[in-house]
């Protein structure tokens, strides 16, 4: 059986909190990995990510999937949700914004491996997808497809 | 033709039984592998797994898929079903709970290879998936995708 | 052939504009109906509507479909998009918010008939849908289903 | 614009609570209808309802959809979720359980109209669905299909 | 709350039984309707019904959906499953077989309303579906589509 | 139980036969209706109907669905399949060909009600569908949708 | 084996005609109805209709479905395809353009009944659908859904 | 062009035959491979395989897909169908039954490569899949996925 | 408005050619590859291929996908379509017929690489698929799946 | 955090522009890569690409997906959209047109890797797909499938 998780350091859990004003407000937190010797994958899906276009101020939307293999830490899920919500009124290009999230989570966890897929909603009829991983995954780990269908227009 | 399975040791089969109180009550049983020399995969799907959140006591739900290549033993299917049902009133984190199941089945069967995929239902709009395998599968075995689509939000 | 649309009165078209601060800033505009004697239906779909929860300040998301049969006016589509975007930082209950949109568009257009379907994303695993129409549609008009599948959980 | 909702009477909101022991523990609460003069439909979906079989003690699962047209009251959504969770360790037949929920919500709200669809997961390969409504819906209201596909076996 | 179901008369429940030799062996049983005053629909789905062709002796397969509105009785689900299994080695034409089931269940329950849809698997590339109901359903009852897609060939 | 079908008059059954040269070769046959007093629907699906274009000689393809409510006769299914195959080298317009089939079957059976849906494959990117029924169906009969999705181009 | 094709001679291939310059060039033609006494529906689908926005000159795309019940005439399908292609470089609002097509075909055929559904691709994330019919369809005719799913954004 | 197949030895073809009593009755036959030098794959799909549970006598159902690369022989398709039908009244465990089929076909054909996927319908809500292949497929051969989706419960 | 089309003159429309009598009539043609130095894949899909069974004379149907990487030549698409149509009244086994097409196209083009997938419609409920390629594809080329789902029976 | 993008050189952004007359009018522009040291993939989808057939002048349609790994530059998305629109009145073969786009974008960006998939709509019932990439992708990069289903005809 796994060791009970130490939750004494968590500050976001157990009370309602508003949205952070922007992505530079520190909210990301971590908990110890309960099975540190096993190469398993944790997947988070944020289907309604939203930020602003830096040129026009119009809202942008994306479906984001984050996969990682933990080393010593797991990301605490409510703090990750708050961090993603902090982009709501922040302007950033699609390509820049996607990689910023990956770098921030990577710096917190120093995981064995990490990747991000960002599936942006179309503006002007032509969407952009962005895909990045920290390198080839470790031998013997199992990493399923993210399974998000590409955009098909109206058809 | 295969050898008839020896079922004299089975204690769960043939009478109705209630749910075990928790995952530490031993219910898992095994039967001899009828084709011990062939590297074939057995897949179980438990589409309505349920446990409790260790922090809030709220129910959690997952769709769980277990794949393994047997060595000398098969897991008896009704006892596996009972074992999974024993998590119904047990509190455990998603990551810990998933790997506990894999370790318990692995200890019973010492299979050639085993993997688990746990697809947890969203809490707060952002689900968690957990993927683990015991290592790279043996050469020449055929292991299809688990085929569970990632969460897509409402869309 | 239809009469050319008179676009002299439109103020949103042709220059980039930021988001209105809230739904009370007037942005909705209308253009003359090019086929005033025909009972046809116009459908708008806003798949990424977002507002704030009035109790917790957390973001809410909805997929909204608006159908109407015009009398003398059409709603100008860019102004409708801006109006819906004005809910981005506005707190309102699901039921109230949905009917507010219907009433605002109805007051602008006094259409022959109007309905709204709001398909809210789940919070806590249980979504809310809201459906309203101004009354039975006129005889002989053709009104297809909105075709949005109800929430299915993870399965 | 709608009147602000009076939330002073709500007792479940704002603090974490465990599961009620059974469906007789009163948790259902109501809030005033913000648009009392309009015949609109509110839909709740509980995709992971679970209770126990009264004969064998085995867990049962259902996907439940509840539609209603409010008169003076809305059901408060968190209390409805708690009420449904209270069936977790309660034994009841499919047909009885489904109608009990409908009657309980109906007694609280005295709505203009109400229906329930319960889509039970198969036991022994043959599922049961239960459908009930309080009568024909009022003229001119719009009531979309619940859109839950019948069971198809493995195919 | 509903009255507890009287299960003393049930003979199939609680012990394993083999398949009845043919549909004339009486196995269908009934239990009292727990909500006799409400016009609700109960749906059974038998996705793997099988019988034999009366001319060639080859196996036939069908997906069968049975809907009814109970009067005083519910059909006991395990006995219905056994009754349907009794066609396994019985020869009968598609049209005759489908209506025989409807008539047998109707004679047992004298329900308010009953219908059957039988979706036969193709022989020679061209399937047969059979649809029957006992008459128009009662006013105000809710009767969803059976939702079985017609055969599409290979495409 | 239904009366055994009298199959003595059937000439197509029980031996392999080639394709009829054209639709004027008489092959359609009928068998007595085993449940003559019940208004049930029989559906045939011919997913790979093929004929020739009368102008260019190129092959045309259609997916055809035939629904009817029998009076005294059922159409014998193998003879219907042969009749449909007889169009393989026959030239006919889409609209004419579809209604010819309906009229031929109608003349053989004089059914209570009959309809045909013909879903022709696209030529030049724009398909033609043809829909006809003999009149409004009888009160109280149950007639499901044919459920063939309209053409969507490549999308 | 054949020799390589010399494509120099192919520019006259089939004496194909170019696109009409605009919708006012008369190309629509009609042929006699082969079954004038029967109320059947003919459906055309044009999945890649394209025109220009009258304000910005940008291309617009739509999926268009046209249904009608012929009186004395059928529309000749190649001429209808050419007519729809003539909108390629023509500027027109969505609502106006859709009804213009319906009126032009209606004037040519004076059909018993006609409807048009136009499903426009999104500009700025929010599509427009337009639905019109000439009135309630005649009693007893069969008119299936057009079956085009509403826009769902990226999800 | 390929050599005409020698069909003189086939005994099942051309006359109607009943079902073999059990899998030990020899019915499997083979025909010469018309393209013996090419590594191509032949796939058979038996979507309605049925056998009996060796413990309870209840019917089991599976969807079975068989892929092989022929060496000198093809399996004759009608005889394979009869062989699979012979399990109809035969009791066998899922794992044993699946591998028995693979071994029987392999012994008849001594193919270059062979695999079997058996997708068993759920009993007690938790299905079993079995996957086996004779080894890694030969270099340069093309072997598509079997494409059968795993079980998802009701959802 | 245009005058009704006189269809007497249409029999010469476009100098369309009839179908070749059988696959030995040479119709396949080729055009020069416009990008001879680039390893790209060209895919043709023939969704309605039809031939005759060599034993019974009944029609067979297949969905065929042909992929190749050109060297010096492309196949001319209209001639390929005519070649495939020439099998309409030709008898051939599934396995033989599929490989004949691949060999004929390969002889004309001597392509860098070629593969064929033939997805035959079921006869007697059990379909056959045939897959072949000329060898492993060249390094660095991109070859997507053919994406044709295997047969699923009725389910 | 990423460096702000320098947008001073962009000429297409911020004012409405008409369509370029043909693909030789230079409109493609580029912006600096904000994360130049990371091997990530950018995907554009153009679901409604249209050009003209060089032989007949008829319109052709394609769904185009472009994937690349940037080196020093990103393509500016509005200029790419304009470039693709410039093919609207330009005649080109499918194979030639697809590769022209790939070469033009490649020359502007000199990316680490690039591929294009063009899924052309059927003419005469048989579509063409074209697939090309600049070579094998770099080790450790993550490149999801383009996920566009092949053509299936009407089925
Ligand atoms: Ca389309
Ligand atoms: Ca795979
Ligand atoms: Ca959406
Ligand atoms: Ca599920
Ligand atoms: Ca509906
Ligand atoms: Ca099936
Ligand atoms: Ca097809
Ligand atoms: Ca319906
Ligand atoms: Ca499209
Ligand atoms: Ca309908
Ligand atoms: Ca979404
Ligand atoms: Ca694959
Ligand atoms: Ca579910
Ligand atoms: Ca099925
Ligand atoms: Ca993949
Ligand atoms: Ca088809």
Automatic annotation (TrEMBL), chains A, B, C, D, E, F, G, H, I, J:
The protein's annotated catalytic reaction(s) are: 7-aminomethyl-7-carbaguanine + 2 NADP(+) = 7-cyano-7-carbaguanine + 2 NADPH + 3 H(+)
Under Enzyme Commission nomenclature, its number is 1.7.1.13
Residues annotated as coiled-coil are none
Q: Which residues form the active site?
A: 53 (thioimide intermediate), 60 (proton donor)
Q: Report the family membership.
A: Belongs to the GTP cyclohydrolase I family. QueF type 1 subfamily.
Its function? Catalyzes the NADPH-dependent reduction of 7-cyano-7-deazaguanine (preQ0) to 7-aminomethyl-7-deazaguanine (preQ1).
Read off the HAMAP family from this record.
QueF_type1
From the Swiss-Prot or TrEMBL record, give the protein name: NADPH-dependent 7-cyano-7-deazaguanine reductase
Gene of this entry: queF
């Amino acid at each position: 059986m796994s060791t009970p998780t130490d939750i004494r350091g968590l500050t976001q859990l157990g009370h309602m909190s508003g949205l952070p004003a922007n992505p530079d407000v520190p909210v990301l937190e971590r908990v110890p990995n309960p099975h540190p010797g096993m190469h398993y994958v944790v997947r988070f899906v944020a289907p309604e990510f939203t930020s602003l276009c830096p040129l026009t101020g119009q809202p942008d939307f994306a479906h984001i999937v984050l996969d990682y293999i933990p080393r010593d830490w797991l990301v605490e899920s409510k703090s990750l949700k708050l961090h993603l919500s902090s982009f709501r009124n922040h302007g950033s290009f699609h390509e820049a914004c996607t990689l910023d999230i990956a770098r921030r989570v990577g710096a917190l966890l120093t995981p064995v491996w990490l990747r991000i897929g960002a599936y942006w909603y179309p503006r002007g009829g032509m969407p952009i997808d962005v895909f990045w991983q920290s390198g080839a995954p470790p031998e013997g780990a199992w990493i399923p497809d993210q399974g998000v269908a590409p955009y098909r227009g109206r058809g």
